[in-house]
């Protein structure tokens, strides 16, 4: 069988790289390389996309800088998941007008999920005239072409038409770290949870070819990367469009077979597609980290159904049980939404009782934020803001207690940790991660960064563990 989702022909990607060289030649006429600042909001997929955008900018002859205001080019990679993230972007984009007045040659670009929301695009068009280029995630690979249009002074560029999306391979990448790396295995989402904007902004699910993913991982391992996270909105649907029978557990097994000392993580897993086979593969693959992010969103079956999550509370709890039977010490994290339209306080209590039953290691808690164009934004929402906040606070309090208790249980244990960076606290100058991904602060030589070490856990807080090298 053939794959059912499109792949961009190699010559089209090569053309983009030619545009990079064209722009590079123009940039080389200046005494100094122009500078570019890429500002990233939102999820890991956006972080990964920004690494590609930086790769393309380097190829265009830009020097990447980490401070925006004075850069010759500012690219804002946006997130649309909640109102709050959007407000921050609008605030920051608005503030750029002054810099642009001082330096009219500055190029200001906005990409990412907000660029796929019609009301955002309209607002940018009308009220943010200093923004030169706006483009959505599905056409990210055409960034050089859009830049070329800007260089040829053809006015503002808006490439924001809704797009299904395709797979583009062979783009340059400039990674931010030397130890941890993201590898996108698929893009888009087909699930249409009723609160979520992502299926509208990132198009349909499409998978990269396994050989390409595996060779990228091999390359990363050869370069010394130790902690590799496979990314997708729902990694458990990986392969469905390939037409070869390939699936996510098989990809994990093949990645696990790559030689070297490194850890494999993945996110995100939709519970409805998390199978016994996935848990079995996780248990038997020694490089697959013993952790999983398994968003439950609500502990109440009626609310789950209104969210279009396609599992019940009981089915979710059964999956957790099956997972823990296979991997008893698995580190379990999750996302939850409080105040979904129509959620009553008794229904919210089911969310509270679910976290008490599951006892997550950590929880990402969100108050529902209506997103224009999604079904939930049209639903009746009678619960007051105050009541939602009160429920939210109860949830956070309960989880903080659970996280603290879970961390307390680490005291005296020895954890095989990857030292992954320096911390800001001089008493505990290094940061490390347990195999399950919990943060550990410890004291040691910075030369240990990038190495696996055994650490005895001596102290804890709600957010982190503290330990000593042994
Ligand atoms: N409001 C609040 N939280 C949301 N999420 C997604 N959409 C919304 C929304 N409209 C949360 C979900 C998801 C996480 C990435 O963000 O919990 O798992
Ligand atoms: Fe959004 Fe649901 Fe897709 Fe996750 S699975 S990105 S919550 S629609």
Account of the protein in words:
The protein has 470 residues and is α/β, with parallel strands linked by helices. It has helices at residues 10-27, 44-59, 83-102, 118-127, 143-151, 198-202, 210-222, 248-256, 276-284, 301-306, 313-326, 345-358, 385-408, and strands at residues 35-40, 63-65, 73-78, 107-112, 133-135, 157-159, 180-184, 186-187, 206-207, 227-231, 263-267, 291-293, 331-338, 362-367, 414-422, 430-433, 439-442, 452-460, 465-469. The protein has three domains: 10-159, Methylthiotransferase, N-terminal domain (Rossmann fold); 180-408, pyruvate-formate lyase- activating enzyme, CATH 3.80.30.20; 414-469, Nucleic acid-binding proteins (OB fold (Dihydrolipoamide Acetyltransferase, E2P), Beta Barrel). The protein contains 13 helices and 19 strands. The longest helix has 24 residues, at 385-408. Iron/sulfur cluster binds next to helix 6.
List keywords for this structure.
alpha/beta, binds iron/sulfur cluster, OB fold (Dihydrolipoamide Acetyltransferase, E2P), 3 domains, binds 5'-deoxyadenosine, single chain
Write out the strand line-up for the largest beta sheet, numbering strands in chain order. 2-1-3-4-5-6
Radius of gyration equals: 23 Å
Predict the CATH topology of the largest domain.
pyruvate-formate lyase- activating enzyme
- Number of H- or I-type helical stretches: 13
Largest sheet features: 6 strands, parallel
CATH class of the largest domain: Alpha Beta
| Ligand identities | 5'-deoxyadenosine, iron/sulfur cluster
Q: What's the overall average pLDDT, rounded?
A: 97
Count structural domains.
Answer: 3
